[in-house]
């Protein structure tokens, strides 16, 4: 089905039409809103089941001219609504195209007319409506130039060659997936589509050279590996965990002596201090190296063979937890972290294999500029100072469709886009030389996610959530506390691990299959105290919820980011009761 979607999308752009893309998991109300707001004239629908769900409201509430069925047969369609609207199958459209080309080459006038139907680089290629983690989605106008910039310059980041296999699993309409697809097609390599359900099997079956996905997938892989280790025999478990600890220490030392550690210091340390630090790191790395290599031979080779990714994995579309990042570095799997927005087509920065600075999102892509400004004054801040990230470059959107006020709010007169993210630029890079914006980019979270306590103190919830998710008792969490005296959390517990922990701690009988709400709360609270003990703010009241945040229940975006506003709206009354 992805193939038909891609071919139809490319076909529309090739003839100069603007495609408006959206996933089949979107609600009918959202699809209708986007269709009418974008002033679309036709509908390309995935399959008969999807058509049958949306046919009647689309016939009644839109001025639709025709419909293209990308998959399946018209015999499976329910005949509801206006039968005067023609429906074509994907193969019928291909046939029409062939006939049209034959007619074109027979007619001199038609050829002349066709020659003047040129597509300009600044013409809109597609409208991509934002996922809407907060508020209604806006139509991002991406031009042919925006998309071509990605095709031309992703090669600086992705170590791809003819004959490689690339596995991806994002929605085919998403800006991140589309940019990767177009780049992959332009390089003539094999592209394999998978799903969350089939990921494990497809990794083993296809042994891809590269995989493109979002942080949640790499968190899932990490959790699966750690779970497998924890359920092995006591000796195997102790050996594996000891090896991992040694390798994490070795990699930390290696980053120090290679100059790949992030620093906010605007002034470099004294020469003597730097030399002592370098010498200590070299000595410790030399001591740990033999153990690390033994671990690689006995443990990590097997893990990498199971995962199947031989060159690199590329993470984007969200924040990559540092413990996941460091773990994959320790076991020798290249995990390249990138950064971008729908409004920037989307990639604006990414880590390279030659300079993969853990904790960062790497250097800007070619012809892309970054700066950091003070959130209140707008003053440009020096390297190492934290503020609002702004970006400028040829991949920047044309604006929001039919929404100039929203466009002017995020893009200033000099062409700088306010990303809405808090971050900083490293004061120096691994070579000590300035490059692009002076160093690698570090993103620390969304400015609008910042929680302001009633005391006036600002808290970035992302770091606390990332730390809490290291507990295998916590499946999902969002930190709350806006305008409250202290922080709280909405937590989806991992029921299987909770039951296991309760039995191991003798909280319940070994034959029991239930843990009381009070005991679950105590277990979760103790985990939060353990994993967030190093933070200045501790999490207080906890709301436990049974149902996970998912795409289907509307609490996650199609790219698996939690919709904070919707979670808060759904549990507003219970959250208020927490603070009484």
Short summary:
The protein is about 40% helix and about 20% strand. It is α/β, with parallel strands linked by helices and about 575 residues long.
What does this structure look like?
With 580 residues, the chain is of the alpha/beta class. Among the domains are: 119 residues, no CATH class; 84 residues, Luciferase, domain 3, CATH 2.30.38; 128 residues, ANL, C-terminal domain (GMP Synthetase, Chain A, domain 3, 2-Layer Sandwich), CATH 3.30.300. The chain contains 18 helices and 23 strands. The strands form 6 sheets. The protein has a 7-stranded mixed β-sheet with strand order 8-7-9-10-11-12-13, with helices on both faces. A 4-stranded mixed β-sheet has the order 1-5-6-16. Helix 4 packs across helix 5, helix 10 packs across helix 11 and helix 10 packs across helix 12. It is globular, with a radius of gyration of 26 Å. About 2% of the residues have low confidence.
Helix and strand arrangement:
Elements: H1 2-14, E1 19-21, H2 28-37, E2 42-45, H3 48-61, E3 66-69, E4 87-89, H4 90-106, H5 108-115, E5 124-129, E6 139-143, H6 144-153, E7 165-168, H7 175-187, E8 190-193, H8 199-206, E9 210-213, H9 215-230, H10 234-258, H11 271-307, E10 312-315, H12 322-330, E11 335-340, E12 347-350, E13 363-364, E14 369-373, E15 387-392, E16 399-400, H13 404-410, E17 417-425, E18 441-446, E19 451-452, E20 458-459, H14 461-468, E21 474-480, E22 487-493, H15 495-504, H16 517-531, E23 539-544, H17 564-570, H18 572-578
Parallel strand pairs: 1-5, 2-3, 3-4, 7-8, 7-9, 9-10, 10-11, 22-23
Antiparallel strand pairs: 5-6, 6-16, 11-12, 12-13, 14-15, 15-17, 17-18, 19-20, 21-22
């Amino acid at each position: 089905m992805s193939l038909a979607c891609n071919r139809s999308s490319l076909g529309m752009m090739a003839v100069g039409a603007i495609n408006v893309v959206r996933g089949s998991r979107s609600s009918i109300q959202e699809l209708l809103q986007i269709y009418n707001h974008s002033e679309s004239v036709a509908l390309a629908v995935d399959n008969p089941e999807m058509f049958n769900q949306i046919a009647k409201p689309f016939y009644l509430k839109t001025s639709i001219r025709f419909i293209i069925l990308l998959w399946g047969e018209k015999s499976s369609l329910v005949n509801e609504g206006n039968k005067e609207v023609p429906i074509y199958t994907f193969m019928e459209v291909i046939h029409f195209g062939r006939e049209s080309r034959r007619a074109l080459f027979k007619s001199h006038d038609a050829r002349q007319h066709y020659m003047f139907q040129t597509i300009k680089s600044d013409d809109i290629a597609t409208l991509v409506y934002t996922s809407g983690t907060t508020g209604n989605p806006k139509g991002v106008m991406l031009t042919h130039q925006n998309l071509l910039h990605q095709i031309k310059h992703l090669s600086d980041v992705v170590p791809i060659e003819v004959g490689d296999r690339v596995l991806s699993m994002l929605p085919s309409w998403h800006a991140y997936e589309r940019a990767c697809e177009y780049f992959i097609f332009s390089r003539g390599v094999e592209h394999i589509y998978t799903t969350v359900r089939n990921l494990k099997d497809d990794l083993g079956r296809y042994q891809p050279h590269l995989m493109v996905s979002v942080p949640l997938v790499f968190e899932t892989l990490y959790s699966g590996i750690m779970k497998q280790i924890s359920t092995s025999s006591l000796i195997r478990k102790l050996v594996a965990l000891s090896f991992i600890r040694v390798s994490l220490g070795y990699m930390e030392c290696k980053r120090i002596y290679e100059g790949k550690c992030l620093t906010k210091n605007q002034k470099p340390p004294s020469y003597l201090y730097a030399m002592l630090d370098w010498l200590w790191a070299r000595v410790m790395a030399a001591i740990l190296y033999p153990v690390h290599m033994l671990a690689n031979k006995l443990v990590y080779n097997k893990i990498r063979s199971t995962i199947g990714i031989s060159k690199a994995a590329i993470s984007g579309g969200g924040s990559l937890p540092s413990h996941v990042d460091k773990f994959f570095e320790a076991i020798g799997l290249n995990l390249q972290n990138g950064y971008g927005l729908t409004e920037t087509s989307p990639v604006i920065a990414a880590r390279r294999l030659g300079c993969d600075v853990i904790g960062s999102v790497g250097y800007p892509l070619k012809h892309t500029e970054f700066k950091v400004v003070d959130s209140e004054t707008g003053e440009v801040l020096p390297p190492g100072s934290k503020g609002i990230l702004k970006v400028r470059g040829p991949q920047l959107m044309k604006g929001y469709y039919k929404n100039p006020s929203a466009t002017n709010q995020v893009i200033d007169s000099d062409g700088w886009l306010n990303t809405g993210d808090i971050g900083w630029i490293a004061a120096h890079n691994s070579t000590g030389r300035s490059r692009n914006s002076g160093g690698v980019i570090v993103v620390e979270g969304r400015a609008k996610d910042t929680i302001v306590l009633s005391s006036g103190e600002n808290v970035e919830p992302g770091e606390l959530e990332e730390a809490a998710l290291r507990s295998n008792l916590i499946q999902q969490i969002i930190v709350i506390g806006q305008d409250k005296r202290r922080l709280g959390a909405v937590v989806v517990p991992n029921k299987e691990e909770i039951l296991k922990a309760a039995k191991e701690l003798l909280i319940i009988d070994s034959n029991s299959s239930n843990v009381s709400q009070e005991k679950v709360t105590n277990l979760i609270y103790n985990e939060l105290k353990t994993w967030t003990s190093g933070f200045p703010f501790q999490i207080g009241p906890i709301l436990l919820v049974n149902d996970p945040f998912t795409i289907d229940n509307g609490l996650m975006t199609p790219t698996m980011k939690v919709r904070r506003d919707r979670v808060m709206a759904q549990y507003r009354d219970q959250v208020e009761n927490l603070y009484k």
